[in-house]
């Protein structure tokens, strides 16, 4: 096994330039959700299929989730199979990455390059989607390519999944696949989601907090600001409500669990606004959004009920006000992947073999689609080596991380 590991690692190294070029080509395609007014992942999926079509995968499947807002009305999901030593009867390892990226944000803050004009500088590839999730997508591709080139059939069939819609809820991605094609998944599958980690590559995520995004809409009566008694300033109602809800949630749901970082639930007001376009208009409408990341011990229904009860109190205080609460996204945290599960042990072993480092397990506040596998009772872990530049201006992928992670993924399939 030691000799095979050396051969595989050396083969991955040979692909360094290919990996760089592949990531550069993929970054150029802005695969952004229709939720943000873009076309989705169609072009990027087509490019990916063009790249891997003649590689020698045993099977490539494409599942298009219908979405009339997207280019050609679909959100593509691609599965590429490389069979293990027992063919289709081999145990299976999924490596899941996502095709979509977040919008570029404030373009003035991109000082190294434009978001979709990738450049290579000081061992890094800059561009939107470079780290999230291009780095791992490319690493998974060339991990399997190395095995193919050496004629090695791994112990486990490797299923590379490239899915849509991870950044906006997965309704057209992994959740759609699980709902519409449940036969794709088996209880004894092992799952790696390389979509989060740390700079050392020593953190394995086995648990996530529940996620609740709520939009609170306030309605009053627009009026000239010099005569506030003639109307009802929705902005004022929203400010008071937001302050009280923030205080209530932090005080009531204040438990800590050291497996997570941060160890407590978080409740962050993230968006807000109203249609007022002049300083002398007291607006009749306003809305605010809270992003709640909640420890699994708490129920999201309780948090929603608290928000609704507070809304009733505010409506009574401000006669004529109407407050509506809309759930934008909700993911109730499943049971964590056990610390001693097979996928955890194998990944820790692969990291130890290649890097001589002890990887630790823990939980995060961010959501990944590992949660959807855990809901099915399939053990899943989240791991990669990254500088954590995702969603930021000047996002980049470190080339060494991409290459070294490809080695870990390849060895993981052999163990």
Automatic annotation (TrEMBL):
Family matches, as Pfam families: M20_dimer, Peptidase_M20
Positions in coiled-coil regions: 297-331
InterPro entries xrefs: ArgE/DapE (IPR010182), Bact_exopeptidase_dim_dom (IPR036264), Peptidase_M20 (IPR002933), Peptidase_M20_dimer (IPR011650), Peptidase_M20A (IPR050072)
Signal sequence interval, chain numbering: none
Native source organism of the sequence: Thermococcus paralvinellae
GO MF annotations in UniProt: hydrolase activity; metal ion binding
Family: Belongs to the peptidase M20A family.
Name of the protein described by the UniProt record: Peptidase M20 dimerisation domain-containing protein
Listed cofactors: Zn(2+); Co(2+)
Domain Peptidase M20 dimerisation: 206-318
Keyword terms: Cobalt, Coiled coil, Hydrolase, Metal-binding, Zinc
């Amino acid at each position: 096994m030691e000799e095979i590991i050396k051969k595989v690692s050396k083969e991955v190294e040979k692909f360094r330039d290919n990996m760089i070029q592949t990531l550069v080509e993929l970054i150029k395609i802005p695969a952004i959700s229709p939720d943000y007014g873009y076309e989705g992942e169609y072009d990027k999926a087509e490019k990916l299929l063009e790249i891997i079509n003649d590689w020698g995968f045993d099977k490539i499947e494409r599942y298009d989730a219908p979405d009339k807002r997207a280019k050609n009305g679909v959100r593509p999901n691609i599965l590429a199979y490389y069979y293990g030593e027992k063919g289709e009867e081999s145990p299976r390892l999924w490596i899941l990455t996502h095709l979509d990226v977040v919008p570029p944000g404030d373009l003035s803050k991109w000082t190294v390059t434009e978001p979709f004009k990738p450049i290579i500088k000081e061992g890094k590839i800059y561009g939107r989607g470079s780290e999230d999730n291009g780095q791992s997508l490319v690493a998974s591709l060339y991990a399997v390519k190395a095995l193919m080139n050496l004629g090695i059939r791994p112990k486990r069939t490797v299923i590379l999944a490239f899915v849509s819609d991870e950044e906006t809820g997965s309704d057209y991605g992994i959740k759609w696949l699980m709902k519409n094609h449940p036969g794709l998944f088996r209880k004894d599958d092992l799952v790696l989601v390389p979509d989060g980690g740390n700079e050392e590559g020593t953190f394995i995520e086995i648990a996530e907090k529940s996620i609740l995004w709520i939009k609170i809409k306030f309605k009053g009566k627009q009026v000239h600001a010099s005569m506030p008694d003639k109307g009802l300033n929705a902005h004022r109602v929203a400010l008071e409500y937001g302050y009280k809800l923030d205080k209530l949630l932090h005080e009531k749901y204040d438990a800590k669990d050291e497996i997570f970082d941060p160890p407590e639930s978080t409740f962050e007001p993230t968006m807000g606004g109203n249609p007022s376009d002049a300083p002398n208009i007291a607006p009749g409408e306003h809305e605010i959004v809270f992003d709640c990341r909640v420890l699994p011990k708490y129920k999201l229904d309780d948090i929603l009920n608290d928000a609704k009860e507070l809304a009733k109190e505010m409506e009574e205080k401000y006669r004529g006000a109407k407050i509506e609460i809309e759930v934008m996204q909700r993911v109730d945290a499943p049971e964590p992947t056990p610390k001693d599960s097979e996928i955890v042990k194998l990944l820790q072993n692969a990291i130890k073999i290649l890097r001589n480092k002890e990887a630790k397990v823990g939980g995060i506040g961010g959501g990944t689609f590992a949660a959807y596998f855990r809901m099915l009772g399939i053990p899943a872990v989240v791991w990669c080596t990254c500088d954590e530049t995702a969603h930021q201006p000047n996002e980049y992928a470190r080339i060494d991380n991409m290459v070294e992670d490809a080695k870990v993924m390849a060895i993981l399939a052999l163990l």
